[in-house]
Amino acid sequence: xxxxENWLPPSRENxxxxxxxWQYFPLVTAIQWLVDWYPMGKTSTESRFNxxxxxxxxxxxxxxFMTLLYIMxxxxxxxxxxxxxxxxxxxxxCFVIHYLYRALISPLFLNPSMSPIHPIPWLGxxxxxxxxxxxxxxxxxxxxxxxxxxxxxxxxxxxxGLVVWALGLLGNMFHDDVLREIRRAADRKQRxxxxxxxxxxxxxxxxxxxxxxxLFRHVLFAHYLCEWVEWAGFWMxxxxxxxxxxxxxxxxxxxxxxxxxxGKRWYVKKFGKEMVxxxxxxxxxxx
Length: 287
Ligand SMILES: NC(=O)c1ccc[n+]([C@@H]2O[C@H](COP(=O)([O-])OP(=O)(O)OC[C@H]3O[C@@H](n4cnc5c(N)ncnc54)[C@H](OP(=O)(O)O)[C@@H]3O)[C@@H](O)[C@H]2O)c1
What we know:
Blueprint: H1 12-22, H2 25-29, H3 31-34, H4 53-78, H5 86-110, H6 119-143, H7 155-197, H8 222-238, H9 243-271, H10 273-276
Bound molecules: NADP nicotinamide-adenine-dinucleotide phosphate (NAP).
NADP nicotinamide-adenine-dinucleotide phosphate (NAP) binds next to helix 7, helix 8 and helix 9.
């Protein structure tokens, strides 16, 4: 059953069109180089339209994996494909595992606090998820390789890609947790002080320190770097011709790179040049 005729799941013509348009997403992110307004996270602003951070992240990021799963279970039937090969499900699994963590586990269960999000970046992230998931799901649910023979190629590169994907995800989770620990530690300290002096708890909302562990010793956005490694591995699994995985990686880089540079300016302004030291924004020793 189609939710939106010829779009969910997409017809081949519509999928081709969407993938073509999606390749031009870096043009949209050019605005991030011109405008410093980015009302979420560290640079969130006061607005009565703001969405609470945890709910914002859960809703804007969940749409991607749900769309992908829906297409995985409907498009093959429409195309008369009885069973998709293991590698198609492996790629779907990579995508779903990442977004179960990013959209549900991280904001709703692990993060001590998250800054509010203005509806404009929320809508941008929601649209990113819709475009990206249809692009990837179309490829792995029938318009890309759909038989074991289609995958007959360099299985070593695909297996290495899976390992790179897993290492990237673990690195992303580890560095996310280094940031969480800053707020957990602040919370413990406040509780201790409150116990001893009877002071009321302030809460850990918007408590920031310079993270020190892991790759944070070299770059301020180590979690972003690991996410790039993760999706580079995903592209390796799909192979050089997997244009949706390539577009995903390039589109992430095009939006996260200016955000990391803006973040570095924010750290320098808040903590001073000396405290930031030789740390780069995202690539150790380079940028
Ligand atoms: N932003 C993007 O464009 C984008 C795109 C794709 C994937 N992602 C992935 O999504 C995840 C979150 O991205 P993000 O842009 O929200 O990252 P972020 O700005 O670094 O924030 C991540 C979390 O850590 C907290 N935090 C950040 N810096 C901190 C510090 N110095 N001290 C204490 N707590 C700190 C934030 O709290 P506050 O919310 O209160 O600031 C937030 O809860 C990352 O793993 C990233 O790879 C992001």
